[in-house]
Amino acid sequence: MRFKTFLKLVASLGVLGAVTSSCGVVPGTSISTVEPGYAGLKIRLYGGDKGIENARLVNGRVWYNGYTENVVVFPTFINTYPFTRDATEGSPNDESVIFSVGGSPVSADVGVSFGFTTEQVTEGAPKTKLHEFYETYRKTPNEFRASELRNGLRNCFGKSAEDLQLTPSMLPTNQQKLVDAVRTCTQERFPFIVVQDVSLLGPLRLPEEIQASIDEQFAAQQAAQTAEFNRRKVEAEAEANVARAKGESQVLIEEAKAEAEANRLRAGSVTPQLLELERLRNERARVQKWNGQQAPVVQTPNVQLGAAPAADGQ
Q: CB within 8 A of 207, min separation 6: which ones?
């Protein structure tokens, strides 16, 4: 019986040797390619140096034993992922971020731009932020995005809205302030990744009755602003008309003053000598025009005014 077992073992070793010699590959050996823009962690699963703390950063074509080792690949470029309720974006499931503002549920379609980094934790140390990420979460990029990152965004939206003391009616005018606070919160929550941007991919969704109340309040504010604008416009036009009338009146006053001053100067300049000089000029002009003849005498018929006409035959 033992002899038969020994023969089976020899046969198995023979087959293994044949496979190894013919293919040149030890059974269990796997190949992974880490493309440019990605970084890989080669992690030993067994042995004295197992664990993430002894993992090596790898790139290019990587050979490893699929039974005792694993290679996890992470994108080191910035990638934008949408968390929306739309089945055509991101996941076919509803991944919109739901948080609370003033006790009211708010649903948001959110885009997050993030990436992983091989930056060293301390200068000169082999351990990187990628090591710390995997040591903390033990998840692939997709698993992390679908669970921890989405949950972190929800918590950061709720916390930021509370820190900013927002109410549902304040959301339309404070969206940018909110997302800026969320981006900062998300980066602080996940220091092992690079969070470049957080953005809203559409308007925030509130319960219908709250949204209707906000719309009515906004319409009332717009109407009040329009009325105030019109009032100021009328006042400005009235002030302009008054100013114009004052300007025109002042112009007339100034013109009258100028005319009066001119007349005064003219009157002050008329003297007897000036009058005599003007008389002599006129006389000289008359003499120069005289042709040497006396002016004709025009005789008028002797007409007696008031006399009655004589009767015929008298």
A: 104, 105
φ and ψ at residue 173, rounded to 5 degrees: -100, 5
Q: Are 31 and 69 in contact (CB under 8 A)?
A: no
User: How far, in Å, CA of 50 to CA of 299, rounded?
Assistant: 153
Q: What angle do CA 183, 184, 189 make, to 5 degrees?
A: 95
Query: What are the φ and ψ backbone dihedral angles of 313, each rounded to 5 degrees?
Result: 90, 0
Bridge-based pairing state of the strands 38-44 and 69-75: antiparallel
Rg (CA), the chain: 53
Q: Tell me the pLDDT tens digit for each residue of 30-75.
A: 888 899 999 999 988 876 666 777 788 898 999 988 888 889 999 9
Structure tokens at 305: 């005014």
Burial of 197 (0-12, 13-18, 19+ CB in 10 A): middle
Residue 249 burial (C-beta neighbours within 10 Å; 0-12, 13-18, 19+): exposed
Query: Tens digit of pLDDT for each residue in 149-184?
Result: 999 999 999 999 999 999 988 888 899 999 999 999
User: Residue 157 phi/psi, 5° resolution?
Assistant: -65, -45
Q: Say which DSSP state 85 is in.
A: S
313: left (phi over 0), alpha (psi -120 to 50) or beta: left
φ, ψ at 128 (rounded to 5°)? -115, 175
